[in-house]
Known about the structure:
Layout: H1 6-25, H2 28-52, H3 54-57, E1 63-65, H4 69-88, E2 94-95, E3 104-105, H5 113-116, H6 120-126, H7 128-152, H8 159-171, H9 173-178, H10 183-186, H11 191-200, H12 207-222, H13 226-246, H14 248-282, H15 316-322, H16 334-348, H17 352-368, E4 372-375, E5 378-383, H18 405-421, H19 427-441, E6 451-453, H20 459-462, E7 475-479, H21 488-496, E8 507-513, E9 517-523, H22 528-539, H23 547-560, E10 562-567, H24 574-585, E11 589-591, E12 594-598
Parallel strand pairs: 7-10
Antiparallel strand pairs: 1-6, 2-3, 4-5, 8-9, 10-12, 11-12
Helix pairs in contact: 2-7, 2-8, 4-6, 4-7, 4-21, 6-7, 7-8, 7-11, 8-18, 11-12, 11-13, 12-14, 13-14, 13-17, 16-18, 16-19, 17-18
Amino acid sequence: MRPVHAADEMTDKQATQVAEDAEQAAPETPRVRWRWAETGLMLGFLLLGVFVMIKLWIDPNGRVLQGNDSDHGIFLFMLAHAERVVFDGGPLFYEDRFNVPFGVNMMANTSILALALPLAPVTHFLGGGVTVVLLMTLGLAGTAAAWYWVLSRPLGRSRVAAAIGAAFAGFGPAMVSHANGHVNFVNNYLLPFIVWQVLRLREPGRAWRGGVILGLLIVVQIFINEEALLFVALTLGIFAVSYALMERAEAKRVWKRFVGGLAVAALTSGVLAAYPLWRQFFGKGTYHGQPFDPSKYVMDLASPGAYARNSLFGIGAITRRLSVSATEDNTFWGPFGLVMIIVSIVILWRNSAMRATAIAGMVLLVMSFGPKLQVAGFRTDVPLPFALIKHVPVIDLVSVSRFAMVPSMVAGVLLAFAYDRIREYPEKTRRRFKIGLVLALVPLIPRPLPVFEGTPMPEFITAGLYKQYVPEGRTLITVPMPEVTTGRTGQRWATLNNLDYATPRGYFMGPAEPPENNTGSWSAPSRYTSWMFKNVGRTGEVPEITPWRRAQVEADLKYWRAAVLVLVPDEKHTPALRTLLVDLFGQPQLVGGAEIWRVNS
């Protein structure tokens, strides 16, 4: 018999240790697999975001989102402003090289400073078009990823359930429709964390720390999208009241620390955002009200059961009948989707928190229908509760249809919780629920958003030849001039050049006729020349140039500090506009592929 040596004893011990380590590692194997699966899921969200925006990715600075080219242009302006702040030291809350000579109050607009400033180098070196498509892509993917983390971690949902809810909240019809031009409404990844932090305020010892964290999140969200912050605040308020009425004992136990945490959050955000908000509501270029009646932009009662135009099963003609625009398909869950949301509510109804969540979503959905019911495109005289609050300050500034963005997020949460709850049901019921989910979600798979080719910039602008004609303090005017519905090419050219040349007018929010009338307007106060350019561009009819008209044009050009006018080619009535310019200023010069008219000082 062979003797046992120390080396053999060490070998046996090592073998035992390896066995024990393997035993302990076995339960970790699924966790490791899930880490890889979660990484794949995040990558999948990113790839889906690229897929939705792929047509714009092909040529970000040359193409324009077809669904809302006006808002595509206004966010190019926001990005150009941030680039000027970072690289030229321009004022943070005001832009003086747009809408010359008055300028634009950036806090009174959706300036997305929290996004635009960090990405200013991208705008500077690659162009604002690249930054737009990057923000759209990361916004869709980031919102889904944020909802996944909150649902799977603090809210304790299974990973499959969290993935379902996150995909619905991040890539549902509401989010994809806003990706047609609304950078601010696509980047919603802070909202799940705001919700989470509010819910955590009921925990012992969270009032100060949680309140400060919540306050900081609120401040950042203010510089992304104040409107979305308002929606979340309304939703959480309705949820809190509903839950407190259902769980009064719980409410009595936690209300002091909950309210205390909210007070700390209000104090933190109030101190940090006080000056920017003062500039927004009381600084130069502020306004009140909207240039339209917000209650006219409402969701149709039939829209929750239909498909959005950019969904796999979407039919454009039907969606246009039920929606106010391509960026406002805020419900459109489809018939199976609507049924599954209702089924989820029924499954979860006994849970007070889920019941309160569903109530909050339903209240915001009813609000999105506006003061009077609209059905299948027909406005009725049936009054709705929103009529009682439509004139409440702040509420009267919101596009009513956007209240429906909340039910879309709530629907994702309900589907996630219902998926986990259904596991307690018999196998047959579980199978039916999963089949229903497939029927609900597959038709909602988004399609790539449509685009069109923008008018290329001439060498006169791209090569900087305009600098020889536009001295400091003077402006370059594109004809037709930039407006909310016309002259979008002129705004696009100026903003893709990061406002290196100053230009009058444009599409933004400002006072209609300051200081006499500070009602909100989508463009600068009308001048005779801008009206004439717009009218000729719309009708093709060229007026006779009388001495009075010539004097009006001269006064307006002096007001705008004009140095040169550039005719934008390929517009609807470019020949008529050219005739008008020739009648006013004589024959043009052809410089760098552009027809220009110099303006005497």
